[in-house]
Design brief:
The complex is a heterodimer.
Chain A: E1 4-11, E2 15-16, H1 26-41, E3 50-54, H2 65-72, E4 81-84, H3 90-103, E5 109-117, E6 123-124, H4 127-138, H5 142-150, E7 160-161, H6 162-166, E8 168-169, E9 174-175, H7 176-186, H8 191-207, H9 209-215, E10 219-222, E11 226-229, H10 241-245, E12 267-276, H11 278-283, E13 290-299, H12 308-320, E14 329-332, H13 337-348, H14 350-355, H15 376-379, H16 383-400, E15 405-412, E16 416-423
Parallel strand pairs in A: 3-4, 3-5, 14-15
Antiparallel strand pairs in A: 1-12, 1-13, 2-12, 5-12, 6-7, 8-9, 10-11, 13-16, 15-16
Chain B: H1 5-11, E1 33-37, E2 42-47, H2 59-73, E3 80-85, E4 90-92, H3 97-100, H4 105-124, E5 129-133, E6 136-138, H5 140-146, E7 150-154, E8 160-162, H6 176-184, H7 186-195, E9 198-200, H8 201-207, E10 212-214, H9 219-226, H10 240-258, H11 263-274, H12 280-295, H13 298-313, E11 328-332, H14 336-347, E12 351-355, H15 359-378, H16 384-392, E13 394-397, E14 408-411, H17 417-430, E15 436-439, H18 446-450, E16 459-464, E17 473-478, H19 484-496, E18 500-505, H20 512-528, H21 533-543, H22 549-556, H23 558-571, H24 580-587, H25 616-640, H26 646-657, H27 675-681
Parallel strand pairs in B: 2-3, 3-5, 4-6, 5-7, 6-8, 7-10, 11-12, 11-14, 12-13, 14-15, 15-16, 17-18
Antiparallel strand pairs in B: 1-2, 8-9, 16-17
Helix pairs in contact in B: 2-4, 5-6, 6-7, 7-10, 7-11, 10-11, 11-12, 14-15, 15-16, 20-23, 20-25, 21-25, 22-23, 25-27
């Protein structure tokens, strides 16, 4: 397979929903990331053949959000843009779509990435209320209007929370948290194990703070005063086991083990990558930061969507003929601590492997190779952007440690897994 | 012998006359208009000056317009007359000022008469008359539209209407002063004529200057549809008492603003409050007398002259070299000047990389840009969309991003030669050899800076003035190395920004600060000797400066002024006045507006100072001495040849300091009053 080279990258700081980036929508965030990418790399925007962005909760006023971002960031009007959606892996999907396009001779240079403003997920009216609003707007005479207006009931004004809808699987009608609870039960992952993993995520992210800071580009938020947002704000420097243990379970209030502390955070952020084919890279004399070698997307039971990475890893290793040992860094997105631990167990334990759909276990992931800089539990999970962030983080790690290969994988709501293999050049 | 007619022709004999002598009809002599009547009996009169992007009124075009009108009057079946322009950006740009200038009273009177009679002829045509306005339709152009029954404007950004005559020391005299008040009422008409403001289509509609605003493509169809419903509505005329009141109020406002230094607005108030209420021939007489009185004053001639010179300076390319297009620009430094420049560039469509080493400065810079934009939206001068676009065009960066595709880099750091040299050396390593490196220094030597980089031929000074969005002047400072291509690019860049460039050879203080500094320092010295701050300012306001020197000190900051002063003192050690008070105030931390106290206390409302006994004699002497210094220095600049022409020096002073345009800056060519002599003449008593 032809490799796709990653030339440059930029991301906004990741900020907890409702905090410093709350006043920016997904377009603003994506635009900031792309502008910063163009500025930092100094490339001529006319060289970019297409912009591909992932976004899960696209704002209603920016239906093809990639196009809006591209135009506002100063990419030429003559260059197209498209938005991709593969739930939590949308940011990775943008990258792999660019690869597919390159292989099909549909472009050489792409800007890809993901953006998400979970602060700005919309509130909806129920269908019943919407019908009543419709009737009111059609009413002509005073009595008609009065009749339509008095048809409303208090319950009609109760909003449906878009974020909650988005995090619920419509096929099996399970919240994402419930799928994590299911894995915790079936694979006997205790609350303590989950909390310990969450703590590990915070501690590792804290230790890697300077490296994470290098990835980010400052954002200037126009509030009353212009605030410069310089760093991620999800990492809890005071995180400790006893504090995590005090948190109430969020999904199964009585017997559950999944809490806000051992799940990924709801976050705002965007990532942008400049990628190119080998020919384009040589033509423009660009220095790559790494390359995408291969990738795979697979499906699984939507009730156990957290196990998605298991088959995806198996598939991508098969495609490349590599073994788990050949990988120096493994980034498994931390949607839930329970889910990452379950994936790990399925990879090494034969019985668990069979339940996840593998013929045989693949192997154990060494502690030091797994999410060495923490993950979404500490940094947050702006769903559309995370896939691209993992690529950026993985590449920076193999570059820093002069290692060879990294694997990036995510579980995907709706019962899928995605995995990609990256190499240092 | 009888010859065959053809033989005679071949032989060139004059005996053969095949046709009677050819006499063209008047309509065939018309070169600037096209007249046609369509199947619906609508006459379309199109103003289309050959080989020009503009239409203007002069003797020829007015005459031709009159011929067309007569032709239409002869056709009884014409249902309506629609007047339009074939130009993309201009309907009619008003009267031809170049023809107006230096013409004799007689010629001028003839032109006024011709315009009045032509537009009266237009107004007198029996059928409905409609004017289609796309692009600028100002002055005489709008007076023509006012003589029509209906005005339909396009919603294009190019479209603007107005009567700017008073800005040039004139009054609308082709019926505009009479017809506009009748159309929209006295109060609104006065506001428009006295301010000389040009209005966008939407605002013109709101005030009633035009009847409809539609897309350009629909102008013709909308006009056709409107023909049936044209009515001659006559506004109720304001009663005498109300007229008097409005006139009095307008007069007061003008006097407060101009101190009566400009005659035209006052005369316009007189005409506009009388002409609409008397019979038409008397009204035309009033307009004519007013313009004839005004046009021949030296003040008006100078105003027109400066206007034309500014037009040339803001449009004419540099005579040598090739101007390259500029898209992307970097501004180094996000301070007041850096942010101001970035804002202006971005609002003009450039992509601006704003670099500063500190994220706090960038945040402050963006904050000031945001405030400027908010203000613009509040004043309805721009839209939310434009605000967002401008902000999208500004790319803040603190990480030394590469400067590979910027055509111009403008350094706007603190005024410190060592720092600037360091920045320039760094910029040289990060840019290509063709990138123009510009400095926004207000007094430091550009030549010295150029020496700090390889390829000094691409180093230039671009001196923007504070506040950037309001000041129309940019001094372009060239060194002996600067190439013509670089100058040409800088000139065209500044012109595209909507500013007026004046090219200056590198020398201490360039033009504006060089001429201003002796004046400012002398003002401080006068204050040392006991002349009250208010009196000095008042004297210069009376002269026509927009701001007195002491207040100007406070605005620019005493330390900044002293810094520029030092550069100048170094260059001309024996000539510049030295004020002890100034140094003392700086060491006391009284730096002007920014520190809360300078020569005045801040914040302080500009209260009008009333002296019980205004010392007019002293004020005159202050004026004489300070203006003398300005004139002397301007003279020296001209003698040294730092600008291309004396006219450029004058233009720079008018645009850069607000030096009153109606006054002569200096009697160039006359022998220079030496500085010492000038001072002798105006020595003031050292009163305590």
């Amino acid at each position: 397979m032809k490799p796709l080279y990653i030339i440059a990258a930029a991301r906004t700081p990741f900020a907890r929903a409702g905090s410093s980036l709350a006043s920016l929508d997904a377009v603003d965030l994506g635009k900031a990331a792309v502008s910063a990418l163009l500025t930092r790399s100094g490339i001529d925007p006319h060289l970019v053949d297409e912009t591909i962005f992932g976004c899960v909760g696209q704002p209603a006023n920016a239906q093809n959000i990639a196009r809006v971002i591209a135009l506002r960031a100063g990419l030429p009007e003559s260059k197209p843009a498209m938005t991709v959606h593969r739930n939590c892996a949308s940011g990775l999907e943008a990258l792999t779509t660019a690869h597919a396009k390159m292989c099909a001779d549909q472009g050489d240079v792409f800007i890809v990435g993901g953006t998400e403003s979970m602060s700005n997920m919309p509130l909806y009216f129920s269908r019943r209320a919407a019908e009543k609003f419709g009737a009111l707007s059609k009413a002509r005479s005073f009595t008609e209007k009065l009749g339509a207006a008095t048809a409303f009931r208090p319950a009609d004004f109760a909003p449906i929370i878009g974020l909650k809808l988005g995090l619920t699987d419509p096929v099996v009608e399970m919240n994402m948290g419930d799928t994590a609870e299911l894995l915790a039960r079936e694979f006997k992952i205790s609350r303590d194990d989950q909390d310990a993993f969450a703590l590990r995520s915070h501690l590792r992210a804290m230790a890697a703070a300077p490296a994470l800071q290098r990835e980010t580009t400052p954002l200037y938020v126009m509030g009353r005063e212009v605030q410069s947002v310089l760093a991620d704000n999800g990492i809890r420097t005071d995180s400790a086991m006893d504090k995590l243990a005090r948190l109430q379970p969020m999904f199964d209030r009585e017997h559950g083990t999944v809490t806000a502390g051992n799940s990924s955070q709801i976050t705002d952020g965007a990532v942008a990558l400049l990628v190119a084919s080998e020919e384009a890279m040589i033509r423009h004399d660009w220095q790559p930061i790494g390359r995408l070698v291969d990738y795979a997307y697979t499906g699984c039971d939507p009730r156990r969507m957290g196990l998605g990475p298991v088959r995806a890893i198996d598939a991508v290793l098969h495609r490349t003929g590599l073994k788990l040992d050949d990988l120096d860094v493994i980034e498994i997105n931390e949607a839930f601590a329970a889910q990452v631990l379950a994936v790990r167990q399925c990879l090494k334990d034969p019985a668990s492997a069979r339940r996840a759909g593998l013929d045989a276990p693949i192997g154990d992931i060494p502690e030091e190779k797994l999410n060495p800089r923490g993950g979404s539990i500490a940094l947050g999970h702006p769903v559309g952007a995370t896939g691209a962030r993992l690529v950026l983080t993985a590449l920076d790690q193999i570059r820093e440690s002069k290692a060879r290969r990294a694997l990036v994988t995510l579980c995907i709501g709706g019962g899928q897994g995605g995995a990609a293999i990256l190499e240092r050049v | 012998m009888k010859t065959h007619p053809l033989e005679a022709l071949a032989a060139g004999k004059e005996t053969f006359v095949p046709h009677p002598p050819y006499i063209p009809s008047p309509l065939e002599t018309v070169k600037h208009f096209r007249l046609g009547v369509d199947a619906e009996y609508i006459a379309w009169l199109t103003f289309d000056t050959p080989n020009s992007a503009a239409n203007v009124w002069n003797d020829t075009t007015l005459r031709e317009f009159g011929i067309c009108l007569e032709e239409i009057a002869l056709k009884p079946d014409v249902r309506a007359l629609i007047i339009r322009s074939a130009k993309d950006k201009i309907t009619v740009a008003g009267a031809d000022l170049k023809a107006l200038r230096h013409s004799s009273v007689k010629k001028l009177e003839r032109l006024i008469d011709l315009g009045q009679s032509t537009f009266n002829k237009l107004a007198g045509l029996p059928m409905p008359k409609l004017a289609l306005i796309h692009g600028a339709c100002v002055g005489g152009g709008f007076e023509m539209a006012l003589a029509c029954d209906v005005r339909i404007a396009s919603d294009s950004d190019y479209t603007c209407v107005g009567l700017p005559e008073t800005q040039l020391g004139l009054v609308p005299a082709w019926g505009g002063s009479t017809r506009l008040p009748r159309l929209i009422g006295l109060a609104k008409a006065l506001e428009i004529i006295v301010s000389g403001k040009q209005l966008k289509a939407k605002d013109a509609k709101r005030l009633g200057l035009v009847d409809a605003v539609v897309p350009r493509e629909y102008l013709e169809n909308v006009a056709r549809a409107r023909i049936g419903s044209v009515q001659h509505t006559h506004r109720r005329r304001e009663p005498l008492l109300l007229r008097k009141f409005i006139a009095c109020r307008a007069r007061k406002a003008v006097l407060a603003k101009t101190r009566g230094l400009y005659l035209a607005p006052l005369r316009a108030i007189e005409v506009v409050t009388r002409a609409p209420f008397v019979d038409p021939s008397k009204a035309m007489e009033l307009e004519k007398h007013a313009i004839l009185d005004l046009a021949l004053t030296p003040e008006t001639e100078r105003l027109i002259d400066v206007f034309l010179r500014n037009e040339v300076a803001s449009k004419k390319p540099w005579p040598r070299g090739v101007a390259l297009p500029v898209h992307d620009v970097a501004v180094i430094g996000a301070g007041i000047m850096g942010a101001g420049i970035a804002h202006w560039l971005a609002s003009r469509g450039h992509r601006v990389l704003m670099q500063d080493i500190s994220t706090e400065s960038l945040a402050r810079g963006l904050s000031s840009i945001r405030d400027l934009l908010n203000e613009g939206v509040k004043r309805r001068a721009s839209t939310h969309l434009q605000m967002r676009d401008t902000l999208d065009h500004i790319l803040p960066d603190h990480s030394r991003a590469p400067l590979t595709h910027q055509q111009i880099v403008i350094e706007a750091a603190t005024e410190d030669m060592a720092l600037k040299k360091k920045i320039f050396a760094d910029l040289a390593t990060r840019t290509g050899a063709n990138t123009i490196l510009a400095t926004n220094t207000s007094a430091l030597s550009v030549t010295e800076l150029a020496a700090a980089v390889p390829h000094p031929e691409r180093v230039i000074g671009l001196h923007f003035f504070n506040p950037v969005h309001r000041m129309p002047l940019v001094e372009i400072i060239t060194t002996m190395h600067t190439t013509d291509d670089v100058i040409a690019t800088a000139v065209s860049f500044v012109q595209h920004l909507g500013k007026t460039p004046v090219v200056v050879k590198d020398s201490p203080g360039f033009i504006v600060n060089r001429i201003l500094m002796p004046y400012l320092l002398e003002a401080a010295l006068l204050h040392d000797s006991g002349v009250p701050v208010e009196l000095i300012d008042e004297a210069m306001l009376e002269f026509g400066m927009p701001m007195g020197p002491m207040r100007l000190f406070d605005e620019i900051g005493l330390d900044v002024a002293a810094h520029v002063g030092r550069t100048m003192t170094d260059a001309f050690p024996d000539r510049l006045p030295k004020s002890e008070t100034l140094d003392r105030m700086i060491s006391d931390g009284k730096l002007g507006k920014k520190s809360g106290e300078g020569f005045y206390k801040h914040p302080q409302k500009a209260t009008k100072h009333h002296w019980t006994e205004p010392d007019h004699h002293l004020m005159e002497r202050v004026q004489e001495r300070l203006v003398g210094l300005i004139r002397d220095e301007a003279h020296r600049c001209a003698d040294e040849g730092i600008a291309r022409s004396e006219a450029d020096i004058e233009l720079a002073m008018i645009l850069g300091t607000g030096f009153p345009a109606f006054r002569a800056l200096a009697a160039f060519g006359a022998p220079l009053l030496s500085g010492s002599r000038a001072r002798e003449v105006t020595t003031l008593p050292r009163t305590a």
